[in-house]
Design a protein that fits this description.
With 631 residues, this protein is mainly α. 72% of the residues lie in helices and 0% in strands. It folds into three domains: 123 residues, no CATH class; 256 residues, no CATH class; 80 residues. It is globular and about 85 Å long.
Length: 631
Protein backbone atom coordinates (compact mmCIF):
# COMPACT_ATOMS: atom_id res chain seq x y z
CA UNK A 1 0.00 0.00 0.00
CA UNK A 2 1.09 3.53 -0.64
CA UNK A 3 2.35 5.34 2.39
CA UNK A 4 1.19 8.76 3.56
CA UNK A 5 4.75 9.31 4.72
CA UNK A 6 5.58 11.22 1.53
CA UNK A 7 3.99 14.42 2.86
CA UNK A 8 7.23 16.37 3.24
CA UNK A 9 5.48 19.55 4.38
CA UNK A 10 4.79 17.87 7.71
CA UNK A 11 8.18 16.11 7.86
CA UNK A 12 6.23 12.95 8.48
CA UNK A 13 8.96 10.65 7.12
CA UNK A 14 11.33 11.95 9.80
CA UNK A 15 8.71 11.48 12.50
CA UNK A 16 8.08 7.90 11.39
CA UNK A 17 11.80 7.15 11.22
CA UNK A 18 12.32 8.60 14.69
CA UNK A 19 9.51 6.46 16.11
CA UNK A 20 10.88 3.37 14.32
CA UNK A 21 14.36 3.98 15.78
CA UNK A 22 12.99 4.46 19.31
CA UNK A 23 10.90 1.31 18.80
CA UNK A 24 13.97 -0.73 17.83
CA UNK A 25 16.01 0.61 20.75
CA UNK A 26 13.18 -0.23 23.17
CA UNK A 27 12.85 -3.77 21.80
CA UNK A 28 16.59 -4.32 22.05
CA UNK A 29 16.54 -3.16 25.67
CA UNK A 30 13.30 -5.01 26.55
CA UNK A 31 14.67 -8.30 25.22
CA UNK A 32 18.06 -8.06 26.87
CA UNK A 33 18.54 -6.19 30.14
CA UNK A 34 15.02 -5.13 31.07
CA UNK A 35 12.66 -7.21 33.17
CA UNK A 36 9.26 -6.16 31.86
CA UNK A 37 6.25 -8.43 32.48
CA UNK A 38 5.16 -10.14 29.28
CA UNK A 39 1.74 -8.53 28.83
CA UNK A 40 3.18 -5.06 29.46
CA UNK A 41 6.03 -5.64 27.00
CA UNK A 42 3.50 -6.84 24.43
CA UNK A 43 1.30 -3.79 25.04
CA UNK A 44 4.20 -1.39 24.42
CA UNK A 45 5.15 -3.38 21.31
CA UNK A 46 1.57 -3.11 20.03
CA UNK A 47 1.59 0.62 20.85
CA UNK A 48 4.54 1.23 18.54
CA UNK A 49 3.17 -1.06 15.82
CA UNK A 50 -0.22 0.69 15.74
CA UNK A 51 1.30 4.18 15.75
CA UNK A 52 3.62 3.29 12.86
CA UNK A 53 0.82 1.59 10.96
CA UNK A 54 -1.58 4.52 11.26
CA UNK A 55 1.08 7.08 10.33
CA UNK A 56 2.61 5.04 7.50
CA UNK A 57 -0.50 3.84 5.65
CA UNK A 58 -3.47 5.84 4.32
CA UNK A 59 -7.11 5.12 5.11
CA UNK A 60 -7.72 3.91 1.56
CA UNK A 61 -5.26 2.02 -0.62
CA UNK A 62 -5.56 4.61 -3.38
CA UNK A 63 -6.67 7.43 -1.15
CA UNK A 64 -5.28 10.95 -1.25
CA UNK A 65 -2.55 11.76 1.21
CA UNK A 66 -4.39 14.83 2.46
CA UNK A 67 -4.68 16.64 5.75
CA UNK A 68 -7.93 14.91 6.77
CA UNK A 69 -6.31 11.52 6.37
CA UNK A 70 -3.30 12.66 8.37
CA UNK A 71 -5.39 14.14 11.19
CA UNK A 72 -7.52 10.97 11.34
CA UNK A 73 -4.39 8.84 11.45
CA UNK A 74 -2.93 10.89 14.29
CA UNK A 75 -6.17 10.57 16.29
CA UNK A 76 -6.17 6.80 15.81
CA UNK A 77 -2.50 6.66 16.77
CA UNK A 78 -3.20 8.60 19.98
CA UNK A 79 -6.08 6.25 20.81
CA UNK A 80 -3.73 3.32 20.20
CA UNK A 81 -1.23 4.79 22.64
CA UNK A 82 -3.99 5.31 25.23
CA UNK A 83 -5.45 1.79 25.15
CA UNK A 84 -2.00 0.19 25.25
CA UNK A 85 -0.71 2.35 28.09
CA UNK A 86 -3.86 1.58 30.08
CA UNK A 87 -2.89 -2.10 29.99
CA UNK A 88 0.67 -1.23 31.03
CA UNK A 89 -0.40 0.77 34.08
CA UNK A 90 -3.70 -0.79 35.22
CA UNK A 91 -4.00 -4.46 34.20
CA UNK A 92 -2.06 -5.61 37.30
CA UNK A 93 -4.50 -3.65 39.51
CA UNK A 94 -7.39 -5.45 37.81
CA UNK A 95 -6.00 -8.89 38.56
CA UNK A 96 -4.47 -8.23 41.99
CA UNK A 97 -6.94 -5.85 43.64
CA UNK A 98 -10.27 -6.26 41.84
CA UNK A 99 -10.54 -10.01 41.43
CA UNK A 100 -10.25 -9.72 37.61
CA UNK A 101 -13.62 -7.95 37.46
CA UNK A 102 -13.42 -5.07 34.93
CA UNK A 103 -15.30 -1.82 35.26
CA UNK A 104 -17.82 -0.88 32.61
CA UNK A 105 -15.58 1.65 30.87
CA UNK A 106 -12.83 -0.97 30.61
CA UNK A 107 -15.02 -3.04 28.30
CA UNK A 108 -15.30 0.08 26.12
CA UNK A 109 -11.49 0.40 26.10
CA UNK A 110 -11.25 -3.28 25.14
CA UNK A 111 -13.67 -2.77 22.24
CA UNK A 112 -11.68 0.26 21.05
CA UNK A 113 -8.43 -1.74 21.25
CA UNK A 114 -9.88 -4.56 19.13
CA UNK A 115 -11.25 -2.11 16.54
CA UNK A 116 -7.92 -0.24 16.37
CA UNK A 117 -5.96 -3.46 15.86
CA UNK A 118 -8.29 -4.57 13.07
CA UNK A 119 -8.05 -1.15 11.41
CA UNK A 120 -4.25 -1.03 11.70
CA UNK A 121 -4.13 -4.51 10.15
CA UNK A 122 -6.50 -3.48 7.35
CA UNK A 123 -4.32 -0.52 6.48
CA UNK A 124 -1.00 -2.37 6.51
CA UNK A 125 -2.07 -5.73 5.06
CA UNK A 126 -5.58 -5.61 3.66
CA UNK A 127 -9.10 -6.73 4.47
CA UNK A 128 -8.75 -10.50 4.78
CA UNK A 129 -7.42 -10.82 8.34
CA UNK A 130 -9.76 -8.14 9.81
CA UNK A 131 -12.76 -9.80 8.15
CA UNK A 132 -11.73 -13.20 9.53
CA UNK A 133 -11.24 -11.59 12.95
CA UNK A 134 -14.73 -10.07 12.89
CA UNK A 135 -16.23 -13.39 11.77
CA UNK A 136 -14.54 -15.19 14.67
CA UNK A 137 -15.91 -12.61 17.15
CA UNK A 138 -19.40 -13.04 15.69
CA UNK A 139 -18.96 -16.80 15.86
CA UNK A 140 -18.13 -16.57 19.57
CA UNK A 141 -21.12 -14.36 20.38
CA UNK A 142 -23.71 -15.91 18.04
CA UNK A 143 -22.63 -19.55 18.26
CA UNK A 144 -26.01 -20.77 19.54
CA UNK A 145 -27.66 -19.78 16.25
CA UNK A 146 -25.32 -21.80 14.04
CA UNK A 147 -26.24 -25.19 12.56
CA UNK A 148 -24.52 -28.56 12.97
CA UNK A 149 -21.41 -29.25 14.99
CA UNK A 150 -20.23 -25.65 14.64
CA UNK A 151 -22.91 -24.54 17.13
CA UNK A 152 -22.08 -23.80 20.77
CA UNK A 153 -23.81 -22.10 23.69
CA UNK A 154 -22.63 -18.63 22.78
CA UNK A 155 -20.21 -16.48 24.74
CA UNK A 156 -21.15 -13.04 26.14
CA UNK A 157 -19.47 -10.14 24.36
CA UNK A 158 -18.12 -8.84 27.68
CA UNK A 159 -16.30 -12.11 28.26
CA UNK A 160 -14.86 -12.03 24.74
CA UNK A 161 -13.63 -8.45 25.24
CA UNK A 162 -12.06 -9.33 28.59
CA UNK A 163 -10.17 -12.27 27.06
CA UNK A 164 -9.00 -10.14 24.13
CA UNK A 165 -7.71 -7.20 26.19
CA UNK A 166 -6.70 -8.31 29.67
CA UNK A 167 -5.24 -11.80 29.18
CA UNK A 168 -2.68 -13.72 27.17
CA UNK A 169 -5.55 -15.25 25.17
CA UNK A 170 -6.16 -12.38 22.74
CA UNK A 171 -4.35 -9.31 21.47
CA UNK A 172 -1.39 -9.98 23.76
CA UNK A 173 -1.27 -13.73 23.27
CA UNK A 174 1.24 -16.12 21.73
CA UNK A 175 1.46 -14.55 18.24
CA UNK A 176 2.38 -11.08 19.45
CA UNK A 177 4.62 -12.50 22.19
CA UNK A 178 6.67 -14.25 19.52
CA UNK A 179 6.63 -11.15 17.27
CA UNK A 180 7.84 -8.86 20.06
CA UNK A 181 10.69 -11.18 21.04
CA UNK A 182 12.20 -13.71 18.63
CA UNK A 183 10.91 -12.26 15.37
CA UNK A 184 11.85 -8.66 16.10
CA UNK A 185 15.34 -9.54 17.30
CA UNK A 186 16.08 -11.58 14.19
CA UNK A 187 14.71 -8.82 11.93
CA UNK A 188 17.00 -6.40 13.77
CA UNK A 189 19.87 -8.88 13.36
CA UNK A 190 19.25 -8.97 9.59
CA UNK A 191 19.11 -5.18 9.42
CA UNK A 192 22.48 -4.89 11.19
CA UNK A 193 24.03 -7.46 8.86
CA UNK A 194 22.73 -5.63 5.80
CA UNK A 195 24.11 -2.37 7.15
CA UNK A 196 27.54 -4.05 7.18
CA UNK A 197 27.24 -4.91 3.48
CA UNK A 198 26.38 -8.58 3.92
CA UNK A 199 23.98 -8.58 0.95
CA UNK A 200 26.78 -7.61 -1.41
CA UNK A 201 29.14 -10.07 0.26
CA UNK A 202 26.69 -12.95 -0.21
CA UNK A 203 26.39 -12.12 -3.91
CA UNK A 204 30.18 -12.01 -4.23
CA UNK A 205 30.45 -15.29 -2.33
CA UNK A 206 27.93 -16.98 -4.61
CA UNK A 207 29.69 -15.56 -7.67
CA UNK A 208 33.00 -16.97 -6.44
CA UNK A 209 31.40 -20.37 -5.95
CA UNK A 210 29.42 -20.68 -9.17
CA UNK A 211 30.03 -17.65 -11.38
CA UNK A 212 32.38 -19.47 -13.77
CA UNK A 213 29.87 -22.18 -14.71
CA UNK A 214 27.61 -22.22 -17.75
CA UNK A 215 24.64 -20.12 -16.69
CA UNK A 216 26.69 -18.98 -13.69
CA UNK A 217 24.57 -15.98 -12.67
CA UNK A 218 21.52 -18.24 -12.34
CA UNK A 219 23.46 -20.50 -9.99
CA UNK A 220 24.59 -17.37 -8.18
CA UNK A 221 20.93 -16.37 -7.74
CA UNK A 222 20.08 -19.74 -6.22
CA UNK A 223 23.07 -19.79 -3.87
CA UNK A 224 22.96 -16.14 -2.79
CA UNK A 225 19.20 -16.22 -2.19
CA UNK A 226 19.58 -19.37 -0.12
CA UNK A 227 22.34 -17.82 1.98
CA UNK A 228 20.41 -14.55 2.27
CA UNK A 229 17.42 -16.54 3.45
CA UNK A 230 19.32 -17.44 6.62
CA UNK A 231 18.97 -13.82 7.77
CA UNK A 232 15.90 -12.63 5.87
CA UNK A 233 12.40 -13.85 6.66
CA UNK A 234 10.75 -12.24 3.63
CA UNK A 235 10.82 -13.68 0.12
CA UNK A 236 10.00 -10.33 -1.51
CA UNK A 237 12.73 -8.56 0.49
CA UNK A 238 15.14 -11.33 -0.49
CA UNK A 239 14.32 -10.74 -4.16
CA UNK A 240 14.79 -7.00 -3.74
CA UNK A 241 18.17 -7.52 -2.06
CA UNK A 242 19.82 -10.13 -4.28
CA UNK A 243 17.70 -9.78 -7.42
CA UNK A 244 18.99 -6.33 -8.29
CA UNK A 245 22.38 -7.98 -8.86
CA UNK A 246 21.52 -11.44 -10.18
CA UNK A 247 18.57 -10.72 -12.50
CA UNK A 248 20.44 -8.30 -14.84
CA UNK A 249 23.37 -10.76 -14.97
CA UNK A 250 21.05 -13.64 -15.92
CA UNK A 251 19.47 -11.55 -18.67
CA UNK A 252 22.90 -10.56 -19.94
CA UNK A 253 24.02 -14.17 -20.50
CA UNK A 254 20.87 -15.24 -22.37
CA UNK A 255 18.01 -15.98 -19.96
CA UNK A 256 14.75 -14.33 -20.97
CA UNK A 257 13.50 -11.65 -18.54
CA UNK A 258 10.68 -13.78 -17.18
CA UNK A 259 13.02 -16.75 -16.64
CA UNK A 260 15.56 -14.58 -14.82
CA UNK A 261 12.86 -13.12 -12.57
CA UNK A 262 11.32 -16.54 -11.90
CA UNK A 263 14.63 -18.14 -10.93
CA UNK A 264 15.29 -15.36 -8.44
CA UNK A 265 11.73 -15.51 -7.03
CA UNK A 266 11.79 -19.30 -6.57
CA UNK A 267 15.23 -19.20 -4.96
CA UNK A 268 14.30 -16.32 -2.64
CA UNK A 269 11.11 -18.08 -1.53
CA UNK A 270 13.21 -21.06 -0.44
CA UNK A 271 15.05 -18.73 1.93
CA UNK A 272 12.00 -18.77 4.20
CA UNK A 273 12.51 -22.50 4.84
CA UNK A 274 16.31 -22.34 5.00
CA UNK A 275 17.75 -22.74 8.53
CA UNK A 276 18.86 -21.36 10.85
CA UNK A 277 16.52 -18.34 10.85
CA UNK A 278 13.86 -19.11 8.21
CA UNK A 279 10.58 -17.20 8.01
CA UNK A 280 9.01 -15.50 11.01
CA UNK A 281 6.29 -18.17 11.19
CA UNK A 282 8.92 -20.76 12.15
CA UNK A 283 9.26 -19.10 15.57
CA UNK A 284 5.49 -19.23 15.98
CA UNK A 285 5.53 -22.92 15.07
CA UNK A 286 8.02 -23.66 17.83
CA UNK A 287 5.84 -21.74 20.28
CA UNK A 288 2.59 -23.46 19.23
CA UNK A 289 4.19 -26.91 19.37
CA UNK A 290 6.02 -26.07 22.60
CA UNK A 291 9.28 -27.48 21.26
CA UNK A 292 12.79 -25.96 21.20
CA UNK A 293 13.48 -23.91 18.09
CA UNK A 294 16.35 -26.28 17.23
CA UNK A 295 13.68 -28.93 16.57
CA UNK A 296 12.23 -26.72 13.84
CA UNK A 297 15.70 -26.11 12.41
CA UNK A 298 16.44 -29.85 12.26
CA UNK A 299 13.07 -30.50 10.61
CA UNK A 300 13.74 -27.93 7.89
CA UNK A 301 17.25 -29.00 6.88
CA UNK A 302 16.48 -31.90 4.50
CA UNK A 303 13.33 -30.41 2.87
CA UNK A 304 15.12 -27.08 2.30
CA UNK A 305 18.13 -28.77 0.71
CA UNK A 306 15.86 -30.86 -1.56
CA UNK A 307 14.00 -27.71 -2.61
CA UNK A 308 17.21 -25.91 -3.55
CA UNK A 309 18.69 -28.94 -5.27
CA UNK A 310 15.62 -29.13 -7.50
CA UNK A 311 15.99 -25.49 -8.56
CA UNK A 312 19.75 -25.90 -9.00
CA UNK A 313 19.30 -28.93 -11.27
CA UNK A 314 16.62 -27.17 -13.33
CA UNK A 315 18.93 -24.21 -13.84
CA UNK A 316 21.64 -26.57 -15.14
CA UNK A 317 19.26 -28.21 -17.66
CA UNK A 318 17.83 -24.85 -18.76
CA UNK A 319 21.35 -23.45 -19.26
CA UNK A 320 22.28 -26.47 -21.36
CA UNK A 321 19.01 -26.34 -23.28
CA UNK A 322 19.58 -22.70 -24.20
CA UNK A 323 23.24 -23.48 -24.98
CA UNK A 324 24.42 -20.58 -22.84
CA UNK A 325 28.10 -19.79 -23.06
CA UNK A 326 30.58 -20.09 -20.23
CA UNK A 327 31.79 -16.64 -19.03
CA UNK A 328 34.77 -15.49 -21.08
CA UNK A 329 38.26 -15.06 -19.66
CA UNK A 330 37.80 -11.37 -18.90
CA UNK A 331 34.53 -12.00 -17.03
CA UNK A 332 36.11 -14.82 -15.06
CA UNK A 333 39.02 -12.59 -14.07
CA UNK A 334 36.56 -10.10 -12.59
CA UNK A 335 35.25 -12.75 -10.19
CA UNK A 336 36.98 -12.58 -6.82
CA UNK A 337 38.59 -15.95 -5.98
CA UNK A 338 36.80 -17.71 -3.12
CA UNK A 339 39.90 -17.93 -0.95
CA UNK A 340 40.71 -14.23 -1.25
CA UNK A 341 37.08 -13.26 -0.62
CA UNK A 342 36.86 -15.35 2.55
CA UNK A 343 40.20 -13.98 3.71
CA UNK A 344 39.13 -10.36 3.28
CA UNK A 345 35.40 -10.47 4.16
CA UNK A 346 34.85 -13.90 5.69
CA UNK A 347 34.39 -12.35 9.11
CA UNK A 348 30.90 -11.27 7.99
CA UNK A 349 29.86 -14.92 8.27
CA UNK A 350 30.81 -15.05 11.96
CA UNK A 351 27.49 -13.65 13.30
CA UNK A 352 25.58 -16.35 11.42
CA UNK A 353 27.99 -18.97 12.78
CA UNK A 354 27.46 -17.57 16.28
CA UNK A 355 23.66 -17.76 16.03
CA UNK A 356 23.72 -21.25 14.51
CA UNK A 357 26.13 -22.55 17.15
CA UNK A 358 24.10 -21.08 20.01
CA UNK A 359 20.85 -22.57 18.69
CA UNK A 360 22.48 -25.97 18.21
CA UNK A 361 23.89 -25.82 21.75
CA UNK A 362 20.37 -25.32 23.08
CA UNK A 363 20.32 -21.61 23.87
CA UNK A 364 17.02 -19.79 23.32
CA UNK A 365 16.39 -17.89 20.07
CA UNK A 366 16.10 -14.74 22.19
CA UNK A 367 19.58 -15.11 23.67
CA UNK A 368 21.00 -16.27 20.32
CA UNK A 369 19.46 -13.32 18.46
CA UNK A 370 20.79 -10.80 20.97
CA UNK A 371 24.34 -12.20 20.85
CA UNK A 372 24.05 -12.34 17.06
CA UNK A 373 23.41 -8.58 17.03
CA UNK A 374 26.30 -7.94 19.42
CA UNK A 375 28.67 -10.09 17.32
CA UNK A 376 27.58 -8.22 14.18
CA UNK A 377 28.49 -4.88 15.73
CA UNK A 378 31.87 -6.25 16.85
CA UNK A 379 32.62 -7.88 13.47
CA UNK A 380 31.73 -4.71 11.58
CA UNK A 381 34.84 -3.00 12.99
CA UNK A 382 37.21 -5.57 11.48
CA UNK A 383 37.25 -3.65 8.18
CA UNK A 384 36.75 0.00 7.34
CA UNK A 385 34.27 -0.68 4.50
CA UNK A 386 32.01 -2.80 6.74
CA UNK A 387 32.18 -0.60 9.84
CA UNK A 388 28.88 0.54 11.32
CA UNK A 389 28.73 4.32 11.41
CA UNK A 390 26.18 6.33 13.36
CA UNK A 391 24.26 6.85 10.11
CA UNK A 392 24.22 3.17 9.13
CA UNK A 393 23.31 2.24 12.72
CA UNK A 394 20.31 4.58 12.63
CA UNK A 395 19.31 3.22 9.22
CA UNK A 396 19.42 -0.34 10.55
CA UNK A 397 17.25 0.57 13.56
CA UNK A 398 14.88 2.49 11.29
CA UNK A 399 14.60 -0.42 8.84
CA UNK A 400 13.88 -2.97 11.57
CA UNK A 401 11.20 -0.79 13.16
CA UNK A 402 9.39 -0.39 9.85
CA UNK A 403 9.86 -4.01 8.76
CA UNK A 404 7.94 -5.33 11.77
CA UNK A 405 4.78 -3.29 11.09
CA UNK A 406 2.95 -5.84 8.95
CA UNK A 407 4.08 -8.80 11.03
CA UNK A 408 3.13 -7.02 14.25
CA UNK A 409 -0.36 -6.00 13.14
CA UNK A 410 -0.96 -9.45 11.65
CA UNK A 411 0.09 -11.17 14.87
CA UNK A 412 -2.08 -8.90 17.02
CA UNK A 413 -5.13 -9.54 14.81
CA UNK A 414 -4.32 -13.23 14.63
CA UNK A 415 -4.32 -13.23 18.44
CA UNK A 416 -8.06 -12.54 18.23
CA UNK A 417 -8.52 -15.61 16.02
CA UNK A 418 -6.35 -17.86 18.20
CA UNK A 419 -8.00 -16.61 21.40
CA UNK A 420 -11.53 -17.28 20.16
CA UNK A 421 -10.52 -20.63 18.71
CA UNK A 422 -9.28 -21.63 22.18
CA UNK A 423 -12.38 -20.16 23.83
CA UNK A 424 -14.91 -21.92 21.59
CA UNK A 425 -13.08 -25.05 20.46
CA UNK A 426 -13.83 -24.21 16.83
CA UNK A 427 -10.55 -25.82 15.73
CA UNK A 428 -11.84 -29.24 16.74
CA UNK A 429 -15.14 -28.62 14.93
CA UNK A 430 -13.40 -27.58 11.72
CA UNK A 431 -11.06 -30.56 12.01
CA UNK A 432 -14.09 -32.85 12.26
CA UNK A 433 -15.60 -31.28 9.14
CA UNK A 434 -12.35 -31.68 7.20
CA UNK A 435 -12.17 -35.34 8.19
CA UNK A 436 -15.80 -35.85 7.13
CA UNK A 437 -15.28 -34.03 3.84
CA UNK A 438 -12.24 -36.14 3.01
CA UNK A 439 -14.01 -39.34 4.01
CA UNK A 440 -11.14 -40.11 6.35
CA UNK A 441 -8.70 -40.22 3.41
CA UNK A 442 -5.44 -38.53 4.45
CA UNK A 443 -4.38 -37.67 0.90
CA UNK A 444 -7.67 -35.87 0.22
CA UNK A 445 -7.41 -34.05 3.54
CA UNK A 446 -3.88 -32.90 2.64
CA UNK A 447 -5.09 -31.68 -0.76
CA UNK A 448 -8.01 -29.78 0.83
CA UNK A 449 -5.75 -28.12 3.39
CA UNK A 450 -3.18 -27.25 0.72
CA UNK A 451 -5.95 -25.66 -1.38
CA UNK A 452 -7.33 -23.70 1.60
CA UNK A 453 -3.85 -22.47 2.47
CA UNK A 454 -3.06 -21.33 -1.06
CA UNK A 455 -6.46 -19.66 -1.51
CA UNK A 456 -6.15 -17.82 1.79
CA UNK A 457 -2.62 -16.79 0.85
CA UNK A 458 -4.01 -14.30 -1.67
CA UNK A 459 -3.31 -11.17 0.34
CA UNK A 460 -2.00 -12.67 3.58
CA UNK A 461 1.63 -12.62 4.70
CA UNK A 462 3.02 -16.07 5.48
CA UNK A 463 3.13 -15.35 9.23
CA UNK A 464 -0.56 -14.53 9.56
CA UNK A 465 -1.50 -17.30 7.14
CA UNK A 466 0.35 -19.89 9.22
CA UNK A 467 -1.38 -18.80 12.43
CA UNK A 468 -4.85 -19.05 10.92
CA UNK A 469 -4.34 -22.34 9.10
CA UNK A 470 -2.48 -23.87 12.05
CA UNK A 471 -5.52 -23.15 14.22
CA UNK A 472 -8.21 -24.37 11.82
CA UNK A 473 -6.46 -27.08 9.76
CA UNK A 474 -3.47 -28.63 11.54
CA UNK A 475 -5.68 -30.29 14.23
CA UNK A 476 -7.44 -32.29 11.48
CA UNK A 477 -4.13 -33.72 10.25
CA UNK A 478 -3.09 -34.60 13.79
CA UNK A 479 -6.39 -36.43 14.33
CA UNK A 480 -5.74 -38.39 11.13
CA UNK A 481 -2.40 -39.66 12.38
CA UNK A 482 0.06 -37.06 11.09
CA UNK A 483 2.63 -36.09 13.73
CA UNK A 484 2.09 -32.57 15.15
CA UNK A 485 5.45 -31.37 13.77
CA UNK A 486 4.68 -32.69 10.28
CA UNK A 487 1.13 -31.25 10.39
CA UNK A 488 2.31 -27.77 11.35
CA UNK A 489 5.27 -27.91 8.98
CA UNK A 490 2.86 -28.86 6.17
CA UNK A 491 0.76 -25.70 6.60
CA UNK A 492 3.85 -23.56 7.25
CA UNK A 493 5.42 -24.82 4.01
CA UNK A 494 2.42 -23.91 1.86
CA UNK A 495 2.21 -20.54 3.56
CA UNK A 496 5.76 -19.97 2.28
CA UNK A 497 4.90 -21.28 -1.20
CA UNK A 498 2.17 -18.65 -1.46
CA UNK A 499 4.94 -16.17 -2.36
CA UNK A 500 5.21 -17.76 -5.82
CA UNK A 501 1.68 -19.13 -6.28
CA UNK A 502 -0.46 -17.11 -8.73
CA UNK A 503 -2.56 -15.05 -8.84
CA UNK A 504 -1.11 -13.18 -5.83
CA UNK A 505 2.62 -13.93 -5.52
CA UNK A 506 4.64 -11.08 -4.08
CA UNK A 507 8.08 -12.60 -4.68
CA UNK A 508 7.36 -13.21 -8.38
CA UNK A 509 5.85 -9.76 -8.87
CA UNK A 510 8.82 -8.12 -7.16
CA UNK A 511 11.21 -10.08 -9.40
CA UNK A 512 9.16 -9.21 -12.50
CA UNK A 513 9.51 -5.53 -11.66
CA UNK A 514 13.29 -5.82 -11.47
CA UNK A 515 13.46 -7.99 -14.61
CA UNK A 516 10.98 -5.78 -16.49
CA UNK A 517 9.13 -8.89 -17.52
CA UNK A 518 5.50 -9.94 -17.79
CA UNK A 519 4.37 -10.59 -14.17
CA UNK A 520 2.11 -13.48 -15.15
CA UNK A 521 4.77 -15.26 -17.23
CA UNK A 522 7.25 -14.74 -14.41
CA UNK A 523 4.80 -16.10 -11.84
CA UNK A 524 3.88 -19.23 -13.80
CA UNK A 525 7.48 -20.05 -14.70
CA UNK A 526 8.48 -19.56 -11.06
CA UNK A 527 5.71 -21.95 -10.04
CA UNK A 528 7.06 -24.49 -12.54
CA UNK A 529 10.59 -24.13 -11.15
CA UNK A 530 9.40 -24.63 -7.59
CA UNK A 531 6.99 -27.47 -8.33
CA UNK A 532 9.11 -29.83 -6.21
CA UNK A 533 8.00 -27.70 -3.28
CA UNK A 534 4.44 -28.93 -3.81
CA UNK A 535 5.45 -32.59 -3.51
CA UNK A 536 7.88 -32.58 -0.57
CA UNK A 537 5.22 -31.66 2.09
CA UNK A 538 3.09 -34.65 1.11
CA UNK A 539 6.11 -36.91 1.50
CA UNK A 540 6.99 -35.81 5.02
CA UNK A 541 3.32 -35.84 6.04
CA UNK A 542 3.28 -39.57 5.28
CA UNK A 543 6.82 -40.26 6.44
CA UNK A 544 8.25 -37.66 8.84
CA UNK A 545 11.73 -39.21 8.68
CA UNK A 546 12.65 -36.33 6.33
CA UNK A 547 11.88 -34.00 9.27
CA UNK A 548 14.30 -36.04 11.39
CA UNK A 549 11.53 -37.39 13.60
CA UNK A 550 12.08 -40.88 15.04
CA UNK A 551 15.45 -40.90 13.31
CA UNK A 552 16.99 -44.22 12.36
CA UNK A 553 20.40 -43.18 10.93
CA UNK A 554 20.44 -45.79 8.17
CA UNK A 555 16.86 -45.08 7.07
CA UNK A 556 17.48 -41.33 7.21
CA UNK A 557 20.59 -41.52 5.00
CA UNK A 558 18.80 -43.85 2.57
CA UNK A 559 15.78 -41.52 2.45
CA UNK A 560 18.00 -38.48 1.78
CA UNK A 561 19.98 -40.23 -0.99
CA UNK A 562 16.92 -41.59 -2.80
CA UNK A 563 15.01 -38.32 -2.37
CA UNK A 564 17.95 -36.44 -3.88
CA UNK A 565 17.98 -38.79 -6.87
CA UNK A 566 14.21 -38.32 -7.10
CA UNK A 567 14.64 -34.54 -7.17
CA UNK A 568 17.23 -35.03 -9.94
CA UNK A 569 14.68 -37.02 -11.96
CA UNK A 570 11.93 -34.48 -11.30
CA UNK A 571 14.14 -31.57 -12.38
CA UNK A 572 14.71 -33.23 -15.76
CA UNK A 573 10.94 -33.53 -16.21
CA UNK A 574 10.41 -29.89 -15.18
CA UNK A 575 13.10 -28.57 -17.55
CA UNK A 576 12.02 -31.00 -20.28
CA UNK A 577 15.70 -31.55 -21.06
CA UNK A 578 18.67 -33.73 -20.17
CA UNK A 579 21.15 -34.33 -22.98
CA UNK A 580 18.41 -33.33 -25.38
CA UNK A 581 14.78 -32.24 -25.27
CA UNK A 582 12.53 -35.00 -23.91
CA UNK A 583 9.80 -36.78 -25.79
CA UNK A 584 6.37 -36.63 -24.15
CA UNK A 585 6.49 -40.20 -22.83
CA UNK A 586 9.99 -39.62 -21.42
CA UNK A 587 8.87 -36.52 -19.56
CA UNK A 588 5.91 -38.37 -18.02
CA UNK A 589 8.12 -41.28 -16.96
CA UNK A 590 10.78 -39.00 -15.43
CA UNK A 591 8.02 -37.30 -13.40
CA UNK A 592 6.40 -40.54 -12.26
CA UNK A 593 9.80 -42.02 -11.46
CA UNK A 594 10.63 -39.00 -9.30
CA UNK A 595 7.57 -39.67 -7.14
CA UNK A 596 8.73 -43.26 -6.62
CA UNK A 597 12.16 -42.11 -5.48
CA UNK A 598 11.19 -39.14 -3.33
CA UNK A 599 8.82 -41.19 -1.17
CA UNK A 600 10.90 -43.42 1.17
CA UNK A 601 10.44 -47.17 0.65
CA UNK A 602 12.69 -50.06 -0.42
CA UNK A 603 10.47 -51.34 -3.26
CA UNK A 604 9.69 -47.89 -4.70
CA UNK A 605 13.35 -46.84 -4.41
CA UNK A 606 14.58 -49.97 -6.22
CA UNK A 607 12.07 -49.61 -9.05
CA UNK A 608 12.81 -45.89 -9.29
CA UNK A 609 16.59 -46.35 -9.56
CA UNK A 610 16.29 -48.99 -12.27
CA UNK A 611 13.82 -46.92 -14.29
CA UNK A 612 15.96 -43.78 -13.94
CA UNK A 613 19.07 -45.53 -15.30
CA UNK A 614 17.09 -46.84 -18.26
CA UNK A 615 15.61 -43.39 -18.98
CA UNK A 616 19.01 -41.67 -18.83
CA UNK A 617 20.57 -44.22 -21.19
CA UNK A 618 17.67 -43.89 -23.64
CA UNK A 619 17.91 -40.09 -23.51
CA UNK A 620 21.58 -40.31 -24.55
CA UNK A 621 21.13 -43.03 -27.17
CA UNK A 622 17.95 -41.82 -28.89
CA UNK A 623 18.58 -38.80 -31.07
CA UNK A 624 16.40 -35.77 -30.77
CA UNK A 625 16.39 -31.96 -30.91
CA UNK A 626 19.44 -30.57 -29.06
CA UNK A 627 18.34 -27.02 -28.36
CA UNK A 628 15.15 -25.95 -26.68
CA UNK A 629 13.27 -22.70 -26.56
CA UNK A 630 12.81 -20.55 -23.50
CA UNK A 631 9.18 -20.70 -22.59
Amino acid sequence: MKSISNDKRLSLPRVISFIAIVFSVFELWANSFAKIPGIERNAIFLLFVMVLSFLSYPFLKKGKKGRIDLVTSIILAVLGVAVCLYVVFFQSDLHLNRGSIPKQYEYILAAIAVILVLEATRRSIGLIIPVIGVLFILYAVLGRYLPGNLAHRGIPLTRVLYRMYFTYEGLFGTPITVASTYIFLFILFGSFLNACGVGKFFSELAMSMAGKRRGGPAHVAVISSGIMGTINGSAAANVATTGTITIPLMKEIGFTPHMAGAIEAAASTGGMIMPPIMGAAAFLMASFLEVPYITIIKAAIVPAILYYLAIFFVVIWESNKLQLTVPDKKQQEEIIPLGRLLLTKGQLLLPIVVITALLVLGFTPLFSGFLGIVSTIVVSFFRKDTRLTLKSLMEALDSAGKSIIQIGTACAAAGIIVGIANLTGVGASIALNIIKLSGGNLFLALVFIMAVTLIMSMGLPATALYIIVAVISAPALVQMGVTPLAAHFFVFWFGVMSNITPPVCLASYTAAGIARSDPNKTAWYGLKLASTGFIIPFIFAYNPILLMEAVNPFRLVLAIVTATIGVFSLSISIANFYKRKLMVWERILFFANALLLIRPGFITDTIGLVVLVVLLVLNVKIKGPQKGKAK
